[in-house]
TrEMBL record:
GO molecular function: transmembrane transporter activity
Location in or out of the cell: Cell membrane
The organism's place on the tree of life at top rank: Bacteria
Keywords: Cell membrane, Membrane, Transmembrane, Transmembrane helix
Protein name, entry field: Putative MFS family arabinose efflux permease
Biased composition (Low complexity): 1-12
Keyword Cell membrane among UniProt keywords: yes
Compositionally biased residues, Pro residues: 13-22
Residue stretches spanning the membrane: 28-46, 66-86, 98-121, 127-144, 156-178, 184-207, 228-250, 256-280, 292-325, 380-399
Amino acid sequence: MTHDTTVAAGPATPAPASPDPRPASGRLPLPALLALATAVFVTSLTETLPAGVLPGMSADLGVGEAAMGQSVTGYALGTALTAVPLAARTAGWRRKRLLLTSMAGFAAANTVTAVSSSYALTMGARFLAGVAAGVAWALLAGYARRIAPAHLQGRAVAVAMTGIPLALSLGVPAGTFLGDAVGWRAAFTAMTVIAVVLLGWIALAVPDLPGEPRGGRAPVARTVKTPGVLPVLAVTFTLVLAHTVLYTYVAAYLDHLGLAGSTGLVLLVFGGASLVGIWFTGRHIDRRLRALTLAGAILFAVAAAVFAVPAASAALVLVAAALWGLGWGGAPTLLQTAVAEAGGDDADTAQTMLVSLWNAAMAAGGVAGGLLLDGLGAGALPWSVLLLLVPVVVVVTGARAHGFPARG
């Protein structure tokens, strides 16, 4: 989800009646939900951290920034290629075992990234991290729903998903500053430490849940034909593609503007605005999903237009970053909710498809951004984002009956 967005799985199949993991008090199980939020944080930050330390990684591993940007592509391919088959293969696993396996995968992948002096080995570790992400995103939101009281399931997912904006607003800037001060390897080492601590937290605080019954998931071919699912998936791919093109190479673009030392601050502003965006989305999504999705795409487009100003000042760039964050912050929640509602009884399969497509878009964005950077220069990045956002607005506007329905 990064995905990164990032993005998460939707409602899982109802938990069996026995044992019931929901707290008898009818309150949110905050220790467990905060552990899940930290898992989301680890997943999102591992995805997006290269954007903040790209110049250092590039110089140390002896490759260009466009080539190093493919570390995001490798991660995304790991998720895109394995999310659907792994979700099917591990559907019967108990949920805690699967979550612990995923987080152990992150610890291993970030450790290898931190110590590797080989570009090929680093790319392999990033692919492994993407596989771990595919496992995590396929279960995290559903896990949060299943351990919460029925009337608080939406709030439980919101608590778990706070890991995404926290990764953007705190994690990436902190990793960027740590990378500048000590070296980029220290940032990935810190990620390993967080993952190891989280393994113990999950073991102690998160209740176990059974897997899905055999045959519990709908086939992909049937799900994609469900009215509304295809428009949501199309919007997801295009929106994430646009975001990834800009986010992965934001350091290179700021260098193009003569603001090379501002990457950490720009990402901090972007992440803080994303927090505001997800907070506002959480308050209004039940009644305003369509309007919020349109507003987010438009804010992102305005931000890209401001970035495209050739002589943009530092202040104007920060304004653009804030608009970008406001527009992007609610996107993972909006899209996962839209596809779950459109999928209906096949929501789990629709969510897994969204995870795969989200990460396919990330992979494509890493490649496309690198080609733009090498072929046309950094100045082409915001213009490409503007072009991609036009069909997003058109599809959301047209999907009034299914996908992004008009309510009320």
